[in-house]
Design goal:
Layout (H helix, E strand, L loop, with lengths): L11 E7 L3 H12 L4 E4 L11 E4 L3 E4 L8 H9 L2 H5 L1 E4 L2 E4 L4 E4 L3 H10 L5 H12 L11 H8 L4 H15 L7 H14 L1 E4 L2 H15 L3 E3 L4 E6 L5 E6 L2 E10 L3 H9 L6 H9 L5 E9 L12 E5 L6 H5 L5 E7 L11 E8 L2 H4 L3 H19 L6 H4 E7 L1 H8 L13 H11 L3 E3 L9 H21 L2 H7 L5 H4 L1
Parallel strand pairs: 1-2, 1-12, 2-9, 6-14, 12-18
Antiparallel strand pairs: 3-4, 5-8, 6-7, 10-11, 11-12, 13-16, 13-17, 14-15, 15-16
Helix pairs in contact: 1-9, 1-18, 2-18, 4-5, 5-8, 6-8
Bound molecules: flavin-adenine dinucleotide.
Flavin-adenine dinucleotide binds next to helix 1, strand 13, helix 16 and helix 18.
Length: 489
């Protein structure tokens, strides 16, 4: 008999959360804190979605998406998770760029970038200040037509080196391009420039395990290895429940952290929406995917601290998104993980990330696929030898992941690493107007992607779910006398 991962689950919950990415986890936590009964369903054997890790022989633990996020994550974790989680968020100070146009190390904040732009790139101080102020002051409602390319042309015409400095890390962080709305750039860039780049000390496993403990304290019913096959909707367009691992569970609201398009077009089905909404959903563009190479050194072998924490390496002449996506890799971001990443560990690890197109990997035969992964590992080592000269002699473990890997583990179509392009945000936000009780939170619209974006969107949507659930007549009475978890808020 296969194991029943839903054993003991109730037949009805106030809310079912589909997916345990950072948005799903955060929504589930807040709703449970409000005193609602919450069922969290995750198809993978591990919580976290893209915020994940894996272990290999020799005590190596590789983080997938722990390369850096803005300081805002600290405030969000303190408010919506725990002080303990917030306290483990620490700054990464060595952000390095190596490319044919420039070579520099920065703390990646406004003060240091101002200094660099003025002293190294000879940009007039008033232009630098005006650019930062414009990026910071962008208004969500007024700024949707200007592109990032236009923003750069206004301030730095003909300066591909400056554009590269300002844009390359953001393209790595969320897949955005010069053709995306400038507002997406302005928000994400300004978030980073506020205080620099931060990480979670202890690793993704420590973070997700602490989140899991908090969810359990707040009473969330967590079920792994549970694939939601269907979201059920009544003829008058209200959510009634989900079908998961073949079992029907009813609920008053569903918060889907699954991919936006799959939620609408697969889990619910287009027949339940207005035709115009389906067309909008179909037109939403997914963001690109990624390849990574995971490299572990033998015990007691390390690398020099001058490698930095994050190294944006490129051999391409200028900033070029297509070149960054190409299987013929010319740009890589290396994350160097020192033993301090996981206090108590003596492991030195490197993760190389490149943006990638699903189509370049999807059609390969098994044999070609394995060969392409071997090539990727090999070319990554060759590139890395510039920074860690004896890396081959020190090597203990190496392996690669591709867009196919990301699709497999997170169910995102085409292994999309960073959700959807900008238009996805409106579709996600207006979902409950189509079907009462159906919500989506997760990487969408570029600004809601990444660790911080996903957590914050999880909060926003949990509040909307709360408003709907609180309006139920039977709950109104109970909530006059909050107790237990609900009272903590
Ligand atoms: C290689 C890489 C590097 C990255 N680096 C960074 C970084 O350095 N900093 C940063 O801030 N961000 C980074 N990101 C992005 C960041 O990790 C994501 O934006 C964020 O974690 C996404 O969270 P999410 O809530 O959107 O959900 P996701 O992480 O997409 O999780 C969705 C979850 O839903 C589950 N699910 C889907 N369908 C179903 C179903 N039908 N039934 C049950 N479960 C289902 C999936 O298994 C998954 O667990 C990176 C991403 C990648 C891929």
């Amino acid at each position: 008999m296969p194991k029943d991962f839903l054993k003991g689950a109730a037949d009805h919950y106030d809310v079912v959360v589909i997916g345990s990415g950072l948005a799903g986890l955060t929504s589930a936590n807040l709703l449970a804190r409000q005193g609602y009964s919450v069922l969290l369903l995750e198809h993978h054997y591990q919580l976290g979605g893209m915020a994940t890790w894996f272990k290999r022989k020799g005590g190596h633990i590789f983080d997938i998406s722990l390369h850096g996020f803005p300081v805002g994550m600290k405030k969000s974790c303190r408010k919506y998770w725990t002080d303990e989680i917030a306290e483990s968020i620490v700054q990464l100070k060595g952000i390095r760029f190596e490319n044919p146009q420039f070579s520099l190390t920065t703390t990646f904040d406004r003060a240091d970038f101002t200094k660099l732009l003025i002293e190294k790139f000879d940009v007039p101080p008033e232009t630098v200040q005006a650019f930062f102020d414009t990026a910071r002051g962008m208004n969500f409602f007024d700024e949707q037509s200007r592109t990032t390319r236009e923003l750069f042309e206004q301030f730095f015409p003909g300066r591909s080196d400056v554009v590269r400095l300002l844009m390359e890390p953001i393209t790595y962080a969320n897949g955005s391009t010069l053709e995306d709305p400038a507002i997406t750039y302005g928000i994400v860039f300004s978030n980073f420039m506020h205080k620099g780049v931060f990480t979670f000390q202890g690793g993704t496993d420590a973070l997700v395990n602490k989140m899991r403990a908090e969810l359990e304290r707040n009473g969330v019913d967590i079920r792994i290895r549970t694939l939601v096959e269907k979201i059920e909707v009544s003829p008058d367009r209200c959510v009634t429940g989900v079908v998961v691992n073949g079992r029907r569970i009813t609920c008053d609201a569903v918060m889907s952290n699954a991919n936006l398009k799959s939620t609408i077009l697969r889990l619910v089905g287009p027949e339940h929406f207005d035709r115009s909404f389906v067309e909008e959903a179909e037109a939403v563009r997914l963001n690109n995917s990624s390849c990574q190479v995971y490299i572990a050194l033998k015990p007691r072998e390390g690398f020099d601290h001058s490698c930095g924490d994050l190294l944006f390496h490129s051999e391409h002449q200028g900033f070029d998104v297509q070149a960054m996506l190409s299987r013929n890799v010319s740009s890589r971001t290396f994350s160097f993980y020192y033993p301090e990443t996981r206090p108590g560990s003596d492991r030195w690890l490197i993760v190389s990330s490149t943006n990638a197109e699903y189509a370049d990997w999807a059609g390969l035969s098994d044999e070609d696929y394995e060969a392409a992964k071997r090539d990727l590992c090999e070319s990554t080592l060759t590139c890395l030898e510039r920074y860690v000269p004896d890396v081959r002699a020190k090597l203990d473990h190496i392996e690669a992941s591709t867009p196919r890997t990301f699709q497999h583990y997170t169910q995102h179509d085409m292994g999309a690493s960073f959700g959807t392009k900008f238009e996805g945000l409106k579709v996600s936000e207006t979902l409950p107007e189509q079907i009462r009780g159906l919500y989506h939170a997760g990487s969408v619209g570029i600004i809601m992607s990444g660790w911080l974006g996903a957590v914050n969107y999880g909060v926003i949507v949990a509040n909307k779910v709360d408003q709907q659930l609180a309006a139920r007549p039977e709950v109104r009475g109970q909530r006059l006398e909050p107790s237990g978890a609900a009272a903590r808020e």
